[in-house]
Amino acid sequence: MSSQTSTLSKVFVFLFALFGVFSHLAAAVPFAELEKRDVFDPPVLYPHAGTVWYKGQRHNVTWDVSSPPVNITNKVGRIMLRKGGISTPLILEDGFDILLGRIEVTVPWVLQGDDYSLILFGDSGNVSPQFTINE
What we know:
The chain is α+β, with helices and mostly antiparallel strands. Helix content is 20%, strand content 39%. The chain has one helix spanning 2-28; strands at residues 44-46, 52-54, 58-63, 76-83, 86-97, 102-106, 113-121, 125-127, 131-134.
């Protein structure tokens, strides 16, 4: 029994020392301070509820840029089409400055429907009100 107790004590001391080493290493790791970031989610102004677009037409998508924060996390915009509350893979425009406030897009050839909306990406995704696309 004395041999078992001695072995158990040695294992306990070893694990305790190992824990001490790892806790000192973890304490030595410097924490980088995160820079302050502001999320900019401008509301989409056009298209709005009641808007009707026709396939192949060009329209200006507009959004409110009247009060952007100082430090915008991502200024590169993207506009995607959404149908029935589900995002589609259709990118209508990409790579523009989110502070422009408008960008021209071509209405894609999609099924007719009155449950389309646009997602304006930059810092976050802002969804337009639903509108109609006809043939």
